[in-house]
Amino acid sequence: MQKQFNWLIVLLISLISISISSCKEEDNNDPELATIDIIGSNKLTVSSEGGTVNVRFTSDCQWVLEPSNHNPNDDVVMTPTSGGTGYNAVSVKIPKNQSTYELYFTFLLRDTKTGGIIATFSVTQEAGNFYIECDTGVVDLPYEDCETVIPVLSNHEIEVCVRDEDRSWLDAYIVKASDVHSNRYSLHIQALKPSYEQGRVRAGRITLNAAEIQKNIHVLQKCSD
Predict the structure, then answer these.
(1) Burial of 32 (0-12, 13-18, 19+ CB in 10 A)
(2) pTM greater than 0.85 (yes/no)
(3) Hey, is 178 helix, strand or coil?
């Protein structure tokens, strides 16, 4: 009986040893995790006017560079977007910040083989200044055509004001593009009634206000001959 018991113990120990050895072999066969080491800081900044940032890193794998799905601007340009082992350098060009708040961008470096994210870096862009932009500051309104539309760009809601002494004949209103995130507006200018006085050009003024920014639009309408 004792011999049978001893034999069972020996068998059990042998099975445990074989199991441990098998696990070690499996562990040794597992591929090592890829690494990407960014040289310097992985948190970068760029001015509101936009610019290019450069990131250097070393890698022991084939990699691809991707923007985060949550980035606020799709016009970012990345060069290159893939590479291999050793020393690498990528550049990211950020466009002008058209908003009045900071923007945050995140970029992902993935292992091409596994698809896993190996490293990330981020870019913070300074808030933009308030602005109003349009192609012209003077609008010639023909006598025969009493209405015109000019495009306007602004990163703030626009208020339109017609000079008091011009309201008897001049009107204007602003329409924003349907996209809520757009900075595009259309300024509609109307002469409410034509002038029949000869030898004159009547002049009016429209003021566009966006926060602390103002822009004057001068409207000239030729009188009938």
Answers:
(1) exposed
(2) no
(3) coil
Last residue of a domain, one of 81, 108, 125: 125
76, 91 in Cβ contact below 8 A? no
Q: What is the CATH number of the domain that holds 81?
A: 2.60.40.10
CA distance to 27, 61, 127, 181, per residue, from 31 (Å) = 9, 12, 45, 46
- From 71, 98, 125, the end of a domain falls on 125
Number of domains in the chain: 2
Report if residue 81 sits inside a domain.
yes
| Sheet hosting strand 170-176, strand order edge to edge | 132-134, 147-154, 184-191, 170-176
Nearest alpha-carbon partner for 208 in 145, 133, 135: 133
Same domain, 87 and 137: no
Q: pLDDT of the chain along its 225 residues, tens only? A: 554 545 555 555 565 565 555 554 444 444 567 899 999 999 999 999 999 999 999 999 999 999 998 888 888 999 999 999 999 999 999 999 888 889 999 999 999 999 999 999 999 999 988 889 988 899 988 776 688 999 999 988 899 999 999 998 899 999 998 876 678 999 999 987 665 655 578 899 999 998 888 999 999 887 765
Residue 153's identity, in one-letter code, is L
Find the domain containing 138 and state its range: 132-222
C-alpha 129/C-alpha 140 separation (Å) is 30
Q: In what order do the strands lie in the sheet with 63-67?
A: 43-46, 117-125, 103-111, 63-67, 82-83
